[in-house]
Amino acid sequence: MARVGIYGATGYTGFELIKLLVRHPDVEIAFATARSAAGQRLCDIFPTFIDQPLVSGDQVDLSGVDLIFTCLPHNTPDLIPIVRSALDAGVRVVDFSDTFRISDPARYAYWRKKEHPAPDLQLEAVYGLPERYREQIRNARLVANTGCYPLTVIFPLYPLVQAGLLADATVIADSKSGVSGAGRSLALKTHFGETHETFSAYNVGRTHRHIAEMEQETGLHLIFAPHLLPVYRGILSTIYVTLKPGVSHADVRAAYAIYANEPFIHLMPEGRLPELRHVAGTMDVAIGVQPVEPERGSYILVACVDNLVKGASGQAVQNMNLMLGFEETSGLR
Amino acid sequence: MARVGIYGATGYTGFELIKLLVRHPDVEIAFATARSAAGQRLCDIFPTFIDQPLVSGDQVDLSGVDLIFTCLPHNTPDLIPIVRSALDAGVRVVDFSDTFRISDPARYAYWRKKEHPAPDLQLEAVYGLPERYREQIRNARLVANTGCYPLTVIFPLYPLVQAGLLADATVIADSKSGVSGAGRSLALKTHFGETHETFSAYNVGRTHRHIAEMEQETGLHLIFAPHLLPVYRGILSTIYVTLKPGVSHADVRAAYAIYANEPFIHLMPEGRLPELRHVAGTMDVAIGVQPVEPERGSYILVACVDNLVKGASGQAVQNMNLMLGFEETSGLR
Amino acid sequence: MARVGIYGATGYTGFELIKLLVRHPDVEIAFATARSAAGQRLCDIFPTFIDQPLVSGDQVDLSGVDLIFTCLPHNTPDLIPIVRSALDAGVRVVDFSDTFRISDPARYAYWRKKEHPAPDLQLEAVYGLPERYREQIRNARLVANTGCYPLTVIFPLYPLVQAGLLADATVIADSKSGVSGAGRSLALKTHFGETHETFSAYNVGRTHRHIAEMEQETGLHLIFAPHLLPVYRGILSTIYVTLKPGVSHADVRAAYAIYANEPFIHLMPEGRLPELRHVAGTMDVAIGVQPVEPERGSYILVACVDNLVKGASGQAVQNMNLMLGFEETSGLR
Amino acid sequence: MARVGIYGATGYTGFELIKLLVRHPDVEIAFATARSAAGQRLCDIFPTFIDQPLVSGDQVDLSGVDLIFTCLPHNTPDLIPIVRSALDAGVRVVDFSDTFRISDPARYAYWRKKEHPAPDLQLEAVYGLPERYREQIRNARLVANTGCYPLTVIFPLYPLVQAGLLADATVIADSKSGVSGAGRSLALKTHFGETHETFSAYNVGRTHRHIAEMEQETGLHLIFAPHLLPVYRGILSTIYVTLKPGVSHADVRAAYAIYANEPFIHLMPEGRLPELRHVAGTMDVAIGVQPVEPERGSYILVACVDNLVKGASGQAVQNMNLMLGFEETSGLR
Question: Semialdehyde dehydrogenase NAD-binding domain: which residues (chains A, B, C, D) (predicted)?
């Protein structure tokens, strides 16, 4: 049994991660930290029967720990010191923030409007997308777990990019996310009365921080409009593409053959599109491909994931499985 | 046109009140106050096109104002001074808090565990239940607008009490409220992820502050279990009563004849029970009466209101209509 | 008082229409028809206290009736005879179906894959978009009430078309509709368990029947992806456009000045986008304009309406107001 | 590996059962039947990637099958013949209907208003409540899986009955169920527009068919009011009891010690009540005990389960585990 620690157990991704880890056959939880809830137990904080004690960060003992998950809020100043201490102690790290996802310093500076706080770690980190960087992840000390929106854009677009089928380097992605993507911190935008029975766009255009990842992994230029759905889990993206003249429908379907052996990626049958219920509560990625006006090369792609599972905590477990030499799907079915 | 002011425009009841007042034919809004949002406009705070400026409390000029509504958070220390200043200036007051609802000092002390902060005002205030205190409200300087839960308990029980039909002075009320009842302040219990797709009881037994009103108006002893429903608007209560031996079903129906001329109270036809959609967005009160085992005197009453309209802001307008001599239903259809 | 009749009172649009008409100051309801519910009352069918009797179509007496609303299911064979009888009797008609919306026979045949069943009526009917055809509607005998999705596409795009600002005649509209748009007929896709807590695209591309209206009114070529939102009311569309080189942001804002005097159309302030709560339960149309990469001419438009009010029954009342010479906004505030 | 068959795979309980069985380590699915969907696959009917073929009932081959689950609609005439054929072929049966739950012919006749259609099977069937009839279930040929509401009433009340603590044989249970309890058949009451954003009571009093089970298992007389919650999964019951004079709070807590070794039953800590999220998607039963006026013996019990898992399909798997000699919790964590 490997021993793993969790920093930040009282957010939605931390809680989801613990739910996955307690039934994982190959690991045990060494510790779980919380800030204001330290001293309480997980079942005091969430409606669960998991009786995990919560400790403060300075009570952590890393000896005998194989890997830590850092599920801390964006821009926590503690993150870099926690990661360095772990690596120095020979403990591997899966980080949930967007600190280490962008490998190119120029791209990072362009999107974040600042220099990277730890360029050596930025250089070392591997982008935690197992379907693409499986081998690097196995050997990585530091893995940057992917963002949630990017999965629904990268997975459907990458095969078309790989096969050279796209006519245009600018692509429109209209995405819709459940409310859990906004986290558990209190804010008016996640207050029930402001979210229930409504629907809105936010950060539309070229402003959302996840665009950097999407462009890094696809080489495309994205126009991205995220929306807030009145559901708890799930992200669905509707993507509008134009194919090069002469590309046949068979060429399009064939491009997706690169996912044939992927355990979690499902190409929908001809004529069908996925919906959030296909993936809610699971590791699955569902991709649908719909010709619109094939004679003009116009196609719509629809892809969805559970933002808390494949889009966050399940992805982290998949990365951990690779890093610690377990079956890649262990604990994830 | 009468001129009215609103203290506390940025909570859900304040917003609902302004929506009612802007289409009321007999009044105009003199001012609306906000604390942190002073200087902005209502349409900056809520998804509305109502372009009402928001001022801070100390910018208010009461000259020429006929009536104010105080929609301030419970236990605001400002409340008593605001009410006194208004009354001193000859301005009448409809207060939304539970400060002035309990008229008996002993009952107040029992439930609030303290003395009343303004005993003279407590003595003067009229409980703002128009169906029962219509004449007193017309002449009142200070009206204590009713709580939301109490309406769904008082309206169905009062006729049976009045007619002397109840066998037992202890009554069970199982109530379910939409989330707007908890207000717009940020709290984990109203965070979308903690409220959506779940259901829970809270403050069950003899602890909820609204019990004092229910008992004051019915003379009964209440066992009260409120629950939080994953809807925005509406409260529905299911009430379990036992009737005296020999009371017939016709006696029960007859007791409700006291509501025959009430514009907003509806007794459901025989065999039908109301649901939240009967009343959402309206001033209506719907009451259903269901025999369970009539030979044992066992009956179930089901009653519902929109907690933001008849249960708060609409009730306040009905009270204002009486106080200012307008048609009682003006602006409320 | 004008006298109006409703054919098809037991669908969602029929019910919404009756709720508007009972508080309309200038009309009274002469009759309301239902098929299987004939003989019952509206309050037996819906959770309402409106006590409107429902009659069967063959019990209708048109004498003294000024106008009828036909809210019948799509493709009802009864529609044409009902419309002809009314017109022959001098009764004017507002029809809710898509039968008379497309004026060009070729466009009709292309989208409907058949000839029009009543070409003379097709020729005579006026498209019921008051903001554009106000004068024709005043004098029309037969008005084809608009579809719901088209409003969220036509209103934001038309000013840009009018001003000649669009670089490309093909436009992408990604639309999201509440479930009431699918009507009250039983179907698995509107079963609570299949709709709640999920989200899906349907009829994407060039297949939805509403595209014909959108193209007729804008002159554009639409790629249209409708989605089903787990809310009851409202449609929001996110529209991706490219402007001609050299068009300034001021030019864009200026184009929308054509709506300056429209009572129901609201252009959001600079930097803000509308959400469904802006329009739910109202006649309002909210339009937001967001530059994405202005130097490339890339803009996103977001527009929303309540599909049952401005998108259906309220629009029908607005058309009726014009036809019968009432104030255009009568009964609609 | 045992081989099991499912009759009725296209309802919500059938689908939930298959999701549990495909990850169960000890069984494989021999067949799954459907009526109108025979010839299709499960993934054609539900948003799932489970590629289970669906056959018609007359294509079933029982040879080599160990156990069948009958998840057929209430009152299907096919049920008795299917059960008899299976038992005759040596195949054991877990039935989801309420046909075999009531063992006493008089009680059955009182509640169902008819004689039992197969008295020999009624006599033989074991009520499928593992926490109480574990040994009988192990050896049963025919198990009557429990109803969903009864679990939330029987589990909290049984310990108090067992310990002789209740003062009154009549008990009030106010229950609230998610919509999935009403099944997947099309009906107006489960149409999204009729269920979403509302709340209602139905079948209140002494009419619901589940009361028979509750009374059989507790020996009490129930006043039962079920309500329909706008959530998909879960049932929560609020139960009002009066204890005998002199019963202490410690006595009450001690009564629940009979569940100490039960893998799925959780007594909430002192002062806390469960909510639906505690149990959604799991086999867990959560029970909270709240003194109201202990000096009068007044207590409120709150209990909840996931109606599709512990309340139906998971319970069936637990019963199967006992019948086939597997670990009782196999496939259920």
Answer: 3-140
Distance between D42 CA and the closest CA of chain A, angstroms: 12
* Residue A275 touches chain D, beta carbons under 8 Å: yes
* Dihedral-angle region of residue C55 (phi above 0 means left; psi in -120 to 50 means alpha; beta otherwise): beta
Q: Is D188 on the interface with C (CB under 8 A)?
A: yes
Residue D100 shares a structural domain with residue D170: no
- Pick from D47, D266, D281: CB nearest A49: D266
Length of chain D (residues): 333
C186, part of any domain: yes
Residue D183: give the domain boundaries.
Answer: 148-306
* Selection from A314, A306, A315, A304 nearest residue A268 by Cα: A304
Does the annotation mark C43 as catalytic?
Answer: no
Give residue D94's pLDDT: 98
For chain B, give me the number of helices (H) and strands (E)? 11, 13
What is the rounded average pLDDT for all residues in chain C? 97
- Residue-wise pLDDT for D175-219, tens only, equals 999 999 999 999 999 999 999 999 999 999 888 999 999 999 999
Contact predicate C154/C129, CB 8 Å:
yes
Q: Do D102 and D232 have their domain in common?
A: no
Residue A28's domain is classified under what CATH number?
3.40.50.720
Q: Which chain D positions have a beta carbon within 8 Å of B292's beta carbon?
A: 204-206, 223
The answer to whether residues D191 and C186 touch, using CB atoms and an 8 Å cutoff, is: yes
Please check whether residue B223 lies inside any domain of the structure: yes
pTM for this entry: 0.97
Per-residue pLDDT for C171 more than 90? yes
Instruction: Indicate whether D82 belongs to any domain.
Output: yes
Identify whether residues C218 and C281 lie together within a single domain.
yes
Whole-number pLDDT of residue D249: 97
Tell me the residue type at B312: A
Determine what percent of chain B falls in helix, strand and coil, rounding each to the nearest 5: 35, 25, 40
Considering only CA atoms, give the Rg of chain D: 20
User: Would you list the DSSP string of C41-82?
Assistant: BHHHHSSS----B-B-GGG---TT--EEEE-PPTT-TTHHHH
In the prediction, which pLDDT does C264 show?
A: 98
Query: Phi first, then psi: what are they for A171, rounded to 5°?
Result: -130, 140
Shortest distance between the Cα of B8 and any Cα of chain A, in A, equals 17
- Here the CATH number for the domain that contains residue D177 is 3.30.360.10
Partners of residue A238 on adjacent β-strands: A174, A302
Query: Domain check: are B156 and B266 in the same one?
Result: yes
* Token pair belonging to C24: 């309309």
For chain A, what is the domain count? 2
Gap between the Cα atoms of B16 and A332, Å rounded: 47
Residue A279 has pLDDT above 90, yes or no: yes
D156 in the same domain as D188: yes
Searching chain D, which residue's CA lies closest to the CA of residue A283? Answer: D49
Residue B205: is its pLDDT beyond 90?
no
Residue A330 lies in a domain: no
Which residues make Cβ contacts (< 8 Å) with residue B281, sequence separation at least 6? B233, B306, B309, C281
Q: Which of B201-210, B215-224, C162-171 has the lowest mean pLDDT?
A: B201-210
β-sheet bridge partners, residue D6: D32, D69
Q: Where are the alpha helices (DSSP H) in chain D?
A: 12-22, 42-45, 79-88, 105-112, 119-124, 130-139, 148-162, 192-195, 211-218, 249-255, 314-323
**B232 closest CB neighbour out of A188, A193, A231:** A193
Q: What is the pLDDT of residues C226-275, one digit of tens each?
A: 999 999 999 999 999 999 999 999 999 999 999 999 999 999 999 999 99
Active-site option among A43, A71, A148, A304: A148
Q: Do B238 and D232 touch (CB under 8 A)?
A: no
Q: Distance between CA C94 and CA A262 in Å, rounded?
A: 55
* Residue C185 sits in the same domain as residue C51: no
Residues D27 and D120 in one domain: yes
Average pLDDT over residues A145-156: 98
Domain shared by C160 and C288, yes or no: yes
